[in-house]
Design the sequence.
């Protein structure tokens, strides 16, 4: 009855999930169901896999359904054939994105085992349901021969050899070896099975609780190891569900920059290293992406192999994880790399260091979902020539694409003159773009009119005339026309606090938001916690928004301490 209620809950959930949620089925016996765990709903391997996916990709992006049935066999003439269970009916009546099958343990019972039938019926089972990706798992070891009438020789010696032969077009995940099954059983395996407080065989820690040792079913720690093995092979082995750049652009929506933080000469010099609360505030305000400016120059050796400081890389990674854990898209770039932008005749000499930076960054983040992380090759080039920019973009993109996991990652390319849209409008044809790469977007930045929005102090003290508004909308139209079908990312825009409501600052932001929405571009407003401050991060335990500007951007000033 407990299983029926749990399965019913899964079915009800499935009835209401959105079509874009990735559906995962975990098919198996009591080891999949979660027997011997302290709480099947929390600690079965499907439940722990689901928690890992929620942490990495955002809550609700994956729906994991536990289709484990205690005592189930592959063999149709076994004592409890899987294809005669309610779970099987759920399996075959739905379409799945990913399916994991782990059966065979109950087939090893002395009154069930028939090798020929096992292979034959497993192949049929694999073919009888629809899933985009199918994985067949080799079950974990049996720790004591005869447990529940199971034959240890079948489980520990035959199944690891036989299961790869039934996979058809499926892939194999070796749980047996993950639980120490590759050890020499005759010399290392305790013939008496696992015993409480017996540490002579380390893998018994996956089976024994304080009260008992189940020689067949893992404990909570063991199920965590099983979920980890599945996750590592499947979701960290660069399996990527492709997403079009147009869809990515829509999902990016309007986000925010974490400015003056990781691009400072030393982290903390300009602004404090953020805490998770900052990203909670971004999420609560309804921003949908976070651009993370990173200046790598100060943290990279000047001699080969141009190694990046590990502590800085970890800080960048923490910010990325805080972002994507809140279902926000992260953008990592190279920012204020003046050493290369101003290299002039030394450009070719210094370029290998820049390429080594991207080699390390792209490798570090290759396992982050392409649905949640994008790369921006070079922020605001303005001194280098177009030939140098094209060379840089071509070689850096090649490095990124050749690292497994980044083949379909969105990458932003921009033009000269600080990524200004006027440059693209007049020089777009001079910008190198790769052939047959559907994961490139064009980036622009703008603080125009600069005398009003960007200059400190300003030389223009009002914005909002009909001509001002027309100029803004005209360049949006012209850029959209020039780039054609390539999606646009408006990576920086902002107006200093030298301006206020009476001088048109609210209207400036509001018109930008309206144009962004009208033309469907992705965007990230500039926030440096200084002249362009939107979120006051001076006191990380008492954050506050620039209420008026947040409202002008169509966002929610969810914090109580607004100014």
Sequence:
């Amino acid at each position: 009855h407990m299983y029926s209620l749990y399965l019913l809950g899964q079915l009800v959930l499935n009835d209401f999930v959105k079509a874009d949620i990735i559906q995962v089925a975990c098919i198996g016996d009591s080891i999949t169901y979660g027997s011997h765990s302290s709480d099947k709903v929390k600690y079965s391997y499907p439940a722990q896999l689901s928690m890992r996916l929620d942490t990495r990709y955002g809550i609700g992006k994956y729906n994991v359904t536990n289709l484990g049935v205690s005592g189930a066999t592959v063999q149709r003439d076994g004592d409890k054939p899987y294809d005669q269970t309610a779970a099987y009916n759920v399996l075959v009546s739905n379409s799945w994105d990913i399916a994991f099958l782990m059966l065979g343990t109950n087939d090893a019972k002395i009154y069930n085992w028939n090798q020929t039938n096992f292979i034959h019926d497993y192949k049929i089972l694999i073919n009888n349901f629809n899933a985009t990706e199918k994985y067949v798992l080799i079950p974990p070891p049996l720790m004591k021969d005869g447990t529940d009438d199971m034959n240890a020789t079948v489980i520990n010696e035959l199944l690891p050899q036989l299961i790869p032969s039934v996979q058809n077009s499926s892939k194999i995940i070796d749980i047996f070896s993950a639980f120490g099954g590759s050890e020499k059983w005759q010399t290392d395996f305790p013939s008496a099975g696992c015993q409480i407080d017996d540490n002579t065989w380390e893998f018994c820690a996956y089976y024994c609780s304080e009260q008992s040792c189940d020689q067949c079913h893992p404990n909570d720690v063991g199920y965590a190891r099983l979920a980890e093995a599945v996750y590592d092979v499947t979701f960290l082995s660069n399996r990527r569900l492709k997403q079009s750049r147009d869809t990515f652009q829509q999902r990016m929506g309007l986000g925010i920059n974490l400015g003056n933080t990781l691009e400072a000469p030393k982290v903390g010099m300009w602004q404090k290293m953020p805490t998770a609360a900052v990203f909670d505030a971004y999420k609560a305000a309804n921003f949908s992406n976070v651009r993370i400016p990173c200046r790598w120059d100060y943290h990279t050796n000047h001699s080969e192999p141009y190694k990046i400081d590990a502590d800085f890389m970890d800080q960048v990674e923490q910010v990325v994880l805080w972002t994507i854990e809140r279902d926000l898209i992260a953008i990592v770039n190279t920012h204020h790399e003046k050493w290369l932008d101003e290299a002039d005749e030394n450009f070719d000499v210094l370029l290998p260091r820049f390429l080594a930076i991207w080699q390390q960054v792209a490798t570090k983040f290759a396992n982050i979902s392409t649905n949640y992380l994008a790369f921006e090759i070079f922020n605001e080039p303005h001194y280098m020539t177009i030939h140098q920019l094209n060379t840089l973009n071509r070689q850096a993109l090649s490095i990124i694409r050749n690292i497994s996991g980044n083949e379909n990652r969105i990458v932003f390319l921009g033009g000269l003159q600080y990524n200004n849209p006027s440059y693209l409008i007049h020089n777009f044809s001079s910008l190198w773009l790769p052939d047959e790469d559907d994961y490139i977007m064009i980036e622009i930045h703008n603080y125009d009119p600069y005398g009003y929005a960007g200059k400190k102090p300003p030389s223009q003290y009002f914005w909002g005339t009909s001509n001002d508004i027309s100029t803004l909308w005209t360049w949006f139209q012209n850029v959209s026309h020039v780039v054609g079908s390539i999606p646009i990312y408006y990576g920086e825009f902002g107006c200093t606090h030298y301006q206020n409501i009476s001088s048109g600052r609210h209207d400036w932001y509001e018109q930008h938001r309206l144009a962004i929405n009208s033309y469907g571009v992705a965007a990230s407003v500039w926030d440096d916690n200084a002249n362009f401050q939107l979120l006051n991060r001076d006191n990380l335990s008492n954050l506050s928004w620039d209420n008026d500007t947040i409202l002008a951007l169509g966002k929610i000033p969810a914090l109580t301490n607004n100014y």
